[in-house]
Amino acid sequence: MSDDEDFMQESDEEYDFEYEEDDDQDSGDVDIENKYYNAKQLKLTDPDDAIAEFLGIPALEEEKGEWGFKGLKQAIKLEFKQGRYDKAADHYAELLTYVKSAVTRNYSEKSINNMLDFVEKAVDSTQAGESIERFYSLTLQSFQSTNNERLWLKTNLKLAKLLLDRKEYGAAVKKLRDLHKACQRPDGSDDPSKGTYSLEIYALEIQMFSETKNTKQLKALYNRALEVKSAVPHPRVMGIIRECGGKMHMSEENWHAAQSDFFESFRNYDEAGSLQRIQVLKYLLLATMLMKSDINPFDSQETKPYKSDPRILAMTELVDAFQRDDIHGYEKVLQRNQGILDDPFIAENIDEVTRNMRTKAVLKIIAPYTRMRLSWIAQQLQVSTVEVQDIIGFLIVDGMIKGCVNQKDGTLIMETNADVERTQALRNLSSSIQDLFGVVFKDGDGFKNLEQGAEENSLEAVQGLSSRKAARMRENQRTKKGRGLAQLV
Fold first, then answer.
1. Distance of CA 487 to the CA centre of its chain
2. CATH 1.10.10.10 occupies which residues in the chain?
3. CA separation (Å) from 116 to 144, 151, 156?
4. Are residues 80 and 119 in contact, defined by beta-carbon separation less than 8 angstroms?
5. Where does the PCI domain start and stop, copy by copy (predicted)?
6. Measured distance CA(353)–CA(197) in Å, rounded
7. If you average pLDDT over residues 153-167, what whole number do you get?
């Protein structure tokens, strides 16, 4: 065999060896990939087999790789859906061992965030909530050594939100304090480079103070949050801030500011695709009635698509009856839709709207009359006599009507124009008598003008002067009488 032939044979052998090695490697990857996609097909029909298939993928890899990472993710989601929370958390701990070498930092961070979002939305029991806390704890432990501040902030924000949802306010305050420190400069001011995170922290704090009715702290944080200009927040975050701001303004009876905030909150929730937009739209309609506005809240481009939404139909009918001053229509809608009052915030403020409606109705009813029974007014409004008496009392004190209530007869007596004229005539007569009195006794015998000094203004001084003058007159009469008798003698 020639040297050339030997060379060719050696080259062919080397080529064949390298080709077979690549083929084996590709074949292994194909098998893993096929196993992964076969498991995905089983997810809907046989979740248990799908979980087993996904968990079998990591064992097929010689080193931790992307397919094992993907298989674990799918298995964790299925286990969590089926309520196998402990198993899901165990496999999540295994998943976190892949993030340091098997996948890129950006891919791992995105996957972990998506996983935490998934388990957060899937919470439907106390046990699930406890499992989520373990997910957060495992995440923080895993990334503590990697100095991944962004993921640390995001995970702690999710944990703080979980604590707020559980109403564990003490633990939430500590967590929020740690988050604030991480987003501040050494001098304690907010770091502009972390403005987005700062705004999310403010949103959680504002939500907490809104729930605990701490209006003073809420107002201070609300104003600080609106001053943050270096952030590009998620619309949902601004929706939370504006919603809590609207509730704050409602507690202060600042209806116009409340309506403005609720509208901004609705707009942000709508942009974020959040279902909370429906609830906030109800608050917007409530504020519209409280500010006694005649403007249709569905005239704007943002709210118009929701005008016929069945979820807010009851509130829409209330607004329509309110703006038409239809008290009976308003009461019927309220009685027919008691579910409106399931929301504590609406239940707390709807009484003020109802009172306004009844007050306007009372003014209309009593306008043509001068005397009427309270029971008759109550019958017209279809409410209790006690409620009518309360409204009448408010109207009299507020100066909106002029009249009085006869408690004994249970009647309302209105002042007529004749009563007003008679009262004014009596006042004028009283004033004229005072003027006449001053003129008569201004320079009279033994008298001085009563307006000359404080002492002379005393009624007792006037009475004393009158008594002395009367005594002198009697003395003069006796003297004249004595002289007459003397002459007769």
1. 105
2. 369-431
3. 17, 11, 11
4. yes
5. 251-419
6. 39
7. 87
SS3 451: coil
CATH of region 29-147, choose from 3.40.640.10, 1.25.40.10, 3.90.550.10, 3.30.1330.10:
1.25.40.10
Task: Give me the architecture of the 369-431 domain, per CATH.
Answer: Orthogonal Bundle (1.10)
Q: Is the pLDDT of residue 298 over 90?
A: no
How many other β-carbons are positioned within 10 Å of the β-carbon of residue 414?
Answer: 15
> CA 388: distance to chain centroid?
31
Q: Which long-range contacts (CB under 8 A, 24 or more apart) does 219-224 make?
A: 219/248, 222/248
| Residues 434-450 pLDDT 10s | 777 776 666 555 444 44
pTM for the whole structure: 0.69
- How remote is the C-alpha of 62 from its chain's centroid? 55
Both tokens assigned to 45: 């029909």
User: Helix axis angle, 344-366 relative to 235-251, nearest 10°?
Assistant: 50
Q: Where in the chain is the domain with CATH 1.25.40.10?
A: 29-147
Whether the predicted pLDDT of 36 surpasses 80: yes
Q: Which residues of 98-137 are buried (b: 16+ CB within 10 A; e: fewer)?
A: bbeebbeeeebbebbbebbeebbeebeeeebbebbebbbe
pLDDT tens for 377-423 read 888 888 888 888 888 888 888 888 888 888 888 888 887 655 555 65
- Alpha-carbon torsion 170, 172, 173, 174, what sign? positive
Rounded CA-CA distance 275/298 in Å is 18
Sign of CA dihedral 364, 387, 410, 376: positive
Distance CA 450, CA 460 (A): 12
Give dist(CA 156, CA 242) in Å, integer.
23
Whether the CA torsion 100, 102, 105, 106 is positive or negative: it is negative
